[in-house]
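Today's session is about reading a structure prediction critically. Students often jump straight to the picture, but the first step is always the sequence itself: look for stretches that repeat, for charged clusters, for runs of hydrophobic residues. Only then move on to the predicted structure, which in these notes is written as discrete structure tokens rather than atom positions. Here is the chain we will use throughout the hour.
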Amino acid sequence: DTCDVMAGARTTPVHIFTGKGNNAGDAYVCARLLYGRGYRVTVWDCFPGMEHTGLVAVMRASVVSLGICIRPAEEFDPGKLFSGVSRIIDDNVSGMPCVIIDGILGTGFSMARPLPPPLRKITARIEDGHIRGARVISIDIPTGVDANTGDADPKAVSADCTATFILPKAGMLRGRGKELSGQLRIFPLGLPIDFADRALHS
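Below is the predicted structure for this chain, in token form.
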């Protein structure tokens, strides 16, 4: 639903960046669901050649089985972004070139371990695409933002919207984390919306 709002039309290309942990698993699920809705999806793997395990491996395999294109993230060229056909047909729809979904790193990031240079190059390309008009959605928390403190790597992803789960992370409400997270969309994953209040007062 968040992608539908950001994209404006299902002819808008969607570029999904994946890492290697739980956030990557969510990103592969996202790729499969959006492909099933009719989006033209490309997955950009930030750790090509890595042997994934567990649920991440299962989710990646499901994406491969659908024939969704997976390419090394270092090949992503924001200078080649283009709009979906709807941008030609409907003048009332904004001319954004695409939606970029950031599923590289999640809450496991800490400023004690800054982003390594290869990932900084990739997040810089995402920001280049952002500057060129792409909408950016982060899964759970923008890559490079410390979920506890709100501190952020100099090359952290700047999102228009962050889709997070159950509750916003503390780092999304303070410091640079608040600025970089953009609009927050919170998905309770089946829990009642007031579950935190119930837990605190039980």
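Discussion point for the tutorial: Residues 84-91 have pLDDT under 50 and may be disordered.
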